[in-house]
Design goal:
The structure is a single chain. This protein has seven helices and 13 strands. By secondary structure, the chain is an alpha/beta fold. The chain has one domain (about 1-235): Alpha-Beta Barrel (TIM Barrel). Helix 4 packs parallel to helix 5 (about 150-160) and helix 5 (about 150-160) packs parallel to helix 6.
């Protein structure tokens, strides 16, 4: 899966994107992936990018490429959950995306993640995913410390799994230890739900398939996680 973070893709018109030849050349290798994840976005203009990416992919590979969209939120001065452009979760319920998710956000905890996912459920039937972060970091000496431990996040995970998720993982501040803490809870959740096939029961936390069958009852355990390093994020295997 190709991963594209926040960029000019979410602040451009479709005509601007179509006319950007250097951008098209840069995207050509990415659209040959099995899918594209647009993560940490906040502006409805990203819908232009979704259409643009599908057109670039059609010119390169023919078949339509699945695009997953993940938004980041915060609470505004009135206490409402909004993106930094002022849009609520309901503003991104678009049928052309393969899955809709939430990741990260300043002072966004599991309560906020749950509210966002529940609000998604009210307006869309596309598969949903969530990748909570490990809290807002504080500076300690020469490094950053995230407040939420693997157990802190894992304790709240069952509530999140009940919210019709197709994939769960971690974002900023989460480590392989956080994902490892998620796995037995995901396995137990999958095994306790009668909709699973015998194959799924034998392998309750399968990796995401290349055909992106996110409608399977088994929760996909995402191995995408991040560790903040002096203000930057580095992918962990």
């Amino acid at each position: 899966m190709a991963d594209i973070g926040p960029s000019a893709l979410e602040s451009s018109t479709l005509d601007e994107l179509v006319g950007n030849r250097p951008l098209i050349e840069a995207l050509r290798p990415l659209v040959k992936a099995d899918a594209i994840l647009l993560e940490t976005y906040s502006d409805p203009l990203v819908r232009n990018a979704i259409r643009f990416l599908k057109e670039v992919a059609a010119g390169e590979t023919g078949p339509e490429i699945p695009i997953l969209l993940s938004l980041t939120y915060h609470r505004d001065s009135g206490g409402e959950l909004r993106t930094i452009t002022g849009n609520p979760p309901e503003a991104f319920a678009w049928p052309e995306i393969a899955a809709l998710g939430v990741n990260c956000g300043k002072e966004i905890g599991m309560d906020e993640i749950l509210e966002i996912v529940h609000r998604y459920c009210q307006v869309t039937d596309v598969p949903l995913f969530a990748r909570p972060n490990a809290g807002t970091p504080a500076r300690l000496g020469d490094h950053w410390v995230y407040p939420r431990s693997p157990q802190d996040l894992a304790t709240r995970l069952p509530d999140l799994l009940e919210a019709r998720l197709a994939m769960v993982g971690g974002c900023c501040g989460t480590t392989p230890e956080h994902i490892a803490a998620f796995k037995p809870i995901v396995d137990h959740w999958n095994a306790s739900h009668a909709l699973l096939s015998p194959t799924a029961l034998r392998n309750p936390s399968p990796p995401m398939n290349t055909d992106l069958d996110l409608t399977n009852a088994a929760i996909r355990l995402s191995l995408i996680c991040y560790v903040a390093t002096l203000g930057t994020s580095t992918r962990q295997p």
